[in-house]
Amino acid sequence: MTSPAATHRDVFGSPPEGVWSAPGRVNLIGEHTDYNDGLALPIALPQRTHAAVSVRDDDRLRVHSVQLGQTVEVSLGSVGPGSPSGWTAYVAGVLWALREDGLPVRGMDVTVDSDVPVGAGLSSSAALECAVGAAASDLFGLDLLGSDDARARLARACVRAENEVAGAATGGMDQSAALLCHEGSALLLDCRSGATEQVPFDLTAAGMVLLVTDTRASHALNDGQYEERRRACEAAAAELGVGSLREVSSGGLEHALARLSSDELRTRTRHVVTEIARVEATVAALRGGDLDEVGRLFRASHASLRDDYEVSCEELDVSVEAAEGAGALGARMTGGGFGGSSIALLPEGSAGDAEDAVRAAFAARGWTEPACFTVTASGPAGRDA
Ligand code: ADP
Ligand code: MG
Question: For this protein, what is the EC number (predicted)?
């Protein structure tokens, strides 16, 4: 593979001032909890998006994507909510959001190269934003990488880029993961307080692996469905007289369910409340080295997302069942659902069998071949060596 720096020289005529990168992420557990002020537990992936960057003296932004084979030029003055459209929004939006935050940002030439699968629920969008944000921090002397607080500020700018410029109404988990995850750890993210905690996640010592399956399925991620789930959660919280479903404790769940006005609100609430409890239980199990329990929690999480929250799909269910049939301690869909990826916790020796089983199950149904790969918890956004 040609290096991003060499590509940058070919495309823009001079070498970059440096190369920065940020990881994709996979959420271990805690799905559809972020917009309920809940808990999530992502790890950073070994797969990263790299940005080779040189600064300009003007307000032009030129961006080349190796994956798309496209170069696009925009003026920073024209960037704002909804503009530009398309993939450059994820790059221009970060510079716009940093400026909105009062920081001195100018134009750039940017070459993007990535091995994060795009649109697979593994957060290629946040990897792109955070790689560009890390470059801007260093090149404009913004000091947004030196501490967790500074990184959290950069994460908020990247969230604004995605929400306001790209127009994707996502929570903040992806950007926090890309900027705050440590190698060998999962990131416990409290979406109510913004607090984060590192949780040891090193499966190698236990002879286990985490297998990711990109199902390559995408059922028109139904922005409609996502919005509907959010609305149901808000409606349930309103009926219960609480600010968010985070306020409902596991112990108070049955009582809360009895007070809700419909089965829809009851099942959505049950997922959110039990899922937040499963994140806490997973953290305790990881700290105690009990991976059987982590597997059990993965299974319970998938069942809850499939049956109560109704955001799974056939491809996700089949990948989970095939991995479990081949020896996984547990498996679950990860990400928003309706397609995307699943994860499975497996003894190292069973990973090949599980991959074969998933592939065979997809082939038997005539579905597009899935991509399977094992991952370790990797490091955050920063300047490449
Ligand atoms: P995910 O974040 O799960 O991969 P999203 O739909 O949130 O899926 O983000 C994918 C979008 O991010 C792409 O459609 C594209 O606009 C942009 N993107 C991500 N990686 C790249 C890349 N390497 N080059 C150009 N655009 C990219
Ligand atoms: Mg994304």
Answer: 2.7.1.6
User: What one-character DSSP code corresponds to residue 333?
Assistant: E
What is the tens place of the pLDDT at every residue in 52-93? 999 999 999 999 999 999 999 999 999 999 999 999 999 999
The residue whose C-alpha atom lies closest to atom 6 belonging to ligand 1 is 119
Every domain of the chain and the residues it spans: 4-200, 204-375
Quick one: how far is CA 52 from the chain centroid?
Answer: 22
Cβ of 158 closer than 6 Å to ligand 1, yes or no, is: no
CA 152 vs CA 132, 144, 149: distances in Å: 15, 8, 5
Architecture in CATH for domain 4-200: 2-Layer Sandwich (3.30)
- Atom index in ligand 1 nearest the CA of residue 123 equals 2
| Ligand 1 near 43 CB (within 6 A) | no
Helix or strand (DSSP H, E) at 62: strand 60-65
pLDDT reading at 251 higher than 80: yes
Residue 147 has pLDDT above 60, yes or no: yes
The catalytic site residues sit at 174
CB of 65 shorter than 6 A to ligand 1? yes
Query: How remote is the CA of residue 295 from the centroid of ligand 1, in Å?
Result: 30
Read off the pTM.
0.96
Using the structure block, give the residue that is written with the tokens 């903040």: 172
Q: Is the CB of residue 279 less than 8 Å from the CB of residue 38?
A: yes
Q: Whose CA is nearest to atom 5 of ligand 1?
A: 119
What is the CATH code of the structural domain delimited by 204-375?
3.30.70.890
Give ipTM to 2 decimals: 0.99
